[in-house]
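Dear colleague,

Thank you for sharing your sequence with our group. We've completed the structure prediction you requested, and as agreed, I am returning the results in plain text so they can be pasted directly into your records. Please verify that the sequence below matches your submission; if there's any discrepancy, let me know and we will rerun it promptly.
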Amino acid sequence: MSNDDPYVILDPAFSDPKRIKKEREKAQKLKKTQWWLDHLNKGICHYCSQKTDRKELTMDHIVPIARGGTSSKGNIIPACKKCNQMKKLAIPSEEFLKK
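Please find the predicted structure tokens below.
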């Protein structure tokens, strides 16, 4: 998603503050698991495939919580800060369709 996109369509049902809070709490718990620590120790950004210091990796939801994503192992990947900031609220299929 580029910076010139005027908006991202958000379904109000997914933007419920209680749901978002619950998913963020689940993400915080996942950050403490061996599964997540193993991803960090690999030091690879999911998007750019660059080797990155583990301190520079962030937890990214492939489908953002605000767009209905969940804090589950199938929806969370490590991403470098640069890629995560560029992605914003996009989902992979939107990036694919732009090409």
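Summary note from our side: Residues 17-92 form a domain with the DNA Binding (I), subunit A fold (CATH 1.10.30.50).

Kind regards,
the structure core
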